[in-house]
What we know:
Oligomer: single chain
Amino acid sequence: MPFIVKPFVIKYMSDSASKCKGCKFKIGSGCLVLGVVADQGPDKPVRCRTSWFHYKCFWTSCVYKNHLRGVDPETLNEIVFGINGLSKADKFNFQNEASSPPASSRKRTGRSTESSIIAAKDCGSVEGGDYEVNENVFDLTDLLCVTVYKHQTNIYVSLREFFLLKGSTIAKPSKRGISLNKLQWRELCSIQNGIEAATKIMATRESKSKEPKTKGKDQRVKEEGEEEEEDEPGQILFSLSWKRRVSVYQHQEEVFVDIREYSEDRTFQRSTKGVALTKPQWTKLREEMPNIEALVQHMEV
């Protein structure tokens, strides 16, 4: 059974026996280090192995450094273990470093280590989509999971894409997704019927678009150069908060429910912080909403 683990670890090294995978020098006791967690397989005595880097070596030498670039603090707590154990200064520096944009990658010959990552859209669901390790994780199929977690005094419901390394059964959260606070999650639950109705409207538009169009006797012939106008909007929007919205739209004959954060400029452009659910994934999320809400209430106590 595949299980989930955070792909990165940050901590102060407790001994001096490990070597840095970047500079190859020994890591001193008390040094700040970043580790990459790898799955060794279920037949091994120790399931997971961690490759350690000096903090600075990670950002210069690790092939996975861009997985921690362009990541907001909320997402960082989901994919990195040990952040709460850092000092305030180191925590601030780490969050600031991770928020910087990814470095541009150069083309290399041969197979890259990062090419071994299987994204959700590439591999589909594994063993029926069962990625849960505990009651805090809910699978929506195709490596899209919902995680309920508590950070300090705040409770979050995270909708996030996961990935698998080739030959591995360990599912790891990626930075592609969005974390909703308790109020935003409950707002999503309250408008679920409206969103479901919007998906049916979009599905009706899809079926109409497939019907052959015939010209009637009284139909006006479109003049040359005149563009055809759409009678209906391209998407239906719902608000979760000032910057976060749910949009239902149709793309390539498929209906999506997109939960996303929008920028604060005048046009409210879509940002990369969010996730697009297919119709089956949205249906699965609706089925799991009572269980997710029960877990949120349990964490409130």
